[in-house]
Structure formats: C-alpha cells, structure tokens
C-alpha cells in the first residue's frame, strides 16, 4: 500500500521512539518528507486561489483542492528516461497488430452512422478516427489510472514545468465545474492526459464537443463525445479532406539517400519522375501535393511517402513512428493489406550504445552535439556523413554495420 508523505512521517516518528531501524531511513528523511509536504501544501493553496481568480467558484475550489494529493510517482515518471532506445520494428509491431485491426473494424460497424456524420461534417474518414482511438487507449480499454488533478498539481508545484502544468490544472478544474465532472473518475496518464482520446485539459477545453447531445462533454464515458472531439481536433489542426496520410513506396536502386526527410519536400509528380513507385511497383502518378520520404528503419526496412496529413498527425503526437502507426492502422482497418517491405530484425540499442555512437562520431570530427543518447536529426545527419565517407548506403540509420564501423560493441546486456 502506498503511503502519503505525512503518513510515512508518522510511521517513522513512531519507529524512532522505539529504537527501530526502518529501511535505513533517518530523521533527515523525515524532515525532507515534511518539508516536501509543506511546500506542496503552500503551492496548492496558491493554485486554489488562482483557480478562484480565474473564475472557479469558491466552494468548488475548496472542495476540489481539499482532495488533491501529492503524487511522488508522477515526479519519478517525469524524470525517468528509458534505458533502451525504441526502434521502429519494436514500436510498430506492438501497435499495428491483428487485435487492433479487428477491433477497429468491429467498432467501425458499431459506430457506422456517427462516423459517417463526422466524416461529412469534419472531413475526417472513419478509419483515421478509429486508429487514433486504438493507439491512444486501446479503444477505451485503458484510459490511465492516475488521478488527473493530483498529477497536474504535483507537476504544477514542481519547478521544471510549473507554468505549463499550472495552466493545465486550472483549466481542468474549470472543466470539472462547467461539465459537472466527477473528480474521482477523472483519471488518466501521469502527465494529465484524459479520456478515450487522451486530451490534455487545454485540448479538452478548446476542441472537445458534445457528440451525444446530452448537454455534457465527457471524454471518459461517452464514446460519441470522444470521437466527435477527435474529429474536431484534427479538423482544427489542419486535416486536408480527401487526401491520405501517405503511403508505402519503393525507391529506385540509384536513389540518393540524402533526399530523405522533411527538408527535401517535392511534389508527387517529381518523386514519380525520379523513379519512386508505389510499394508494389505501380507508378505514383501526377499530383502537385507536397510530400517527403520517411525511412524509419534504414534502407532494409520500409519507406513511406508522407503527405501533409502526416504532419497533422504529428501535431497530435510529434513522433514519426506514431504518425506511421496511425496511418498504417487506419489503412488496415479500411481493408488494406500488410506492408510489402519487411521489418528488419534490429537489436535493442541501449542509451549507452547511442552515446558511444555519438562520441565516436564527434571524435572523428563529425559534430553531432552533446552525447545524450537521443537519436535525433543531428545524430542521423552525422551517421549519414559517416556512411558517405565509408561508401556505405547513406540512410542515416545506426545499423549493426555502422555500429561496428564506429567501434561500438553491441552485446545483449550492454
């Protein structure tokens, strides 16, 4: 059972008076715990006053803030960094799977009329709304378990991102009052994302819609509200009706891999003229739509031609892996087949592997910035420069051959 800070304080004080040694903790831990609790209580009082000044009624503010508790686990999660670097094959295979595809098709039938209305009103095809829903919460199967207001208050009282989370907390309390939400049922992610579609409070306030016309917007309990809100959100983010997210493509043998990435946008017609085809070899055809090439797993894996709606997906979640997963899950729900290219079998690189790679590149005069273990654009460009110098395929991907050439040893437990 998880104890509160004040509960732990009382327990430790009782232990100290009887001469017990309790898990190696000392009175300094007791003092630190009490100081943290006092600081949180003071911060919470200030946030309560800000909520009232922002328009929340005094009784509601008192009622809500009296129940808010400090959540140390939220700070742990905010500070934690993954030990291993996520690879596209690992990410994709866990998200675009048979269960989500079949469940998405089942829910497409269940919500057929609603989804048709949303497509007509907002221009968002049903299979995309279902894909977002599936990736965010397994179609509502897991919406998170953390008390949203506790999480937001804990982060608001932490100096790292206090301004952002203070605004989110005040917005969440306003939503609770305006929509008559139940504080106990307002659960979500550790960072405060809520409901079927995992909206932060600011997105909830700006884009959520009463889809079932019951006079309340409830993204936890109303699937109609959640789907309508997702459609409105995507439309406001700039979704272009009538266009795909992108598609899997095949590159010509002579392709210059320096043309990968968002900075090298070209029309579909231009890519077609350069020999880029659909995945099965059919011509791309002619179109003025701007697009760019994404190669998430190196030249041995799939390549995608990303259209403007791909960037809209990334405004929901700023990750190319996520955007590809949404696009491909939507395709599969709509009846498309599996990808043509296979996913390469890649090792699980640890952050230390990427740090060693970055250090090796820097040592060779290829500046990738600080060795932080993050495989960002600067590191990918550095890898590409190294590959060019070694007459390798310059796809900017840290393949095993690149790691070996840079002297980075990959072992199962390193």
UniProtKB/TrEMBL annotation:
GO terms for biological process: peptidoglycan catabolic process. The keyword Signal applies. GO terms for molecular function: peptidoglycan lytic transglycosylase activity. NCBIfam families: MltB_2. CDD domains: Slt35-like. Residues 1-33 form the signal peptide. Keywords: Signal. Gene3D superfamilies: 1.10.530.10, Bacterial muramidase, PGBD-like superfamily/PGBD. Residues 352-406 form the Peptidoglycan binding-like domain. This is Membrane-bound lytic murein transglycosylase B. Residues 40-331 form the Transglycosylase SLT domain.
